[in-house]
Design a protein that fits this description.
This protein has about 150 residues and is mostly helical. About 45% of the residues lie in helices and about 0% in strands. The protein has seven helices and no strands. Helix 1 packs across helix 7 (about 120-135) and helix 2 (about 50-65) packs across helix 5. The two termini are about 20 Å apart. The mean pLDDT is about 95.
Length: about 150
């Protein structure tokens, strides 16, 4: 599930910045309540970390300081940080979520980007990636999409 989600979030591991926000930073779109002045907390990294409160929590857990608040671009510019924040987000916000442990892929999608679960085609595309990944790894268990759009 993790691999499928990061493949979707990063456009096949090609992008570590939310494409729509690259030029403008998407000011006012994401929470800035604990952010630094002049910084924007749009999606960065392989799991597209968003919102200042997630940057702050990840920074404190991973580095024991606020480096990701003062330099949110580090999540996209530093390969180790991009992976560390992706694993951190999965561990803190997805892995133990109800349904995920029962292999409900839709519950993982809801934890990462619940907006997609309101009928957006992106949720189904995520699930198609999951099906491809399972086949590639010869996992014969039937993929379960429960938790998002069904």
């Amino acid at each position: 599930m993790f691999l499928s989600q990061i493949l979707w979030e990063s456009g096949g591991l090609r992008y570590k910045r939310e494409l729509i926000c690259i030029k403008t930073g998407c000011p006012g779109v994401y929470d800035h309540s604990v952010g630094a002045p002049g910084k924007n907390y749009y999606g960065r990294g392989y799991i597209q970390l968003t919102h200042s409160y997630n940057y702050k929590a990840a920074s404190l857990d991973l580095y024991h300081d606020l480096r990701l608040i003062t330099n949110p671009d580090m999540v996209a510019d530093n390969e180790d940080c991009a992976w560390a924040t992706a694993f951190w987000f999965w561990k803190i916000n997805v892995h133990n979520r109800a349904g995920v442990q029962q292999h409900h892929f839709g519950d993982a999608t809801r934890a990462i980007n619940g907006m997609e679960c309101s009928g957006m085609p992106a949720a189904r595309k995520r699930f198609q990636i999951y099906q491809h990944v399972m086949r590639a790894f010869h996992i014969n268990e039937a993929p379960n999409e429960h938790g998002c759009y069904n």
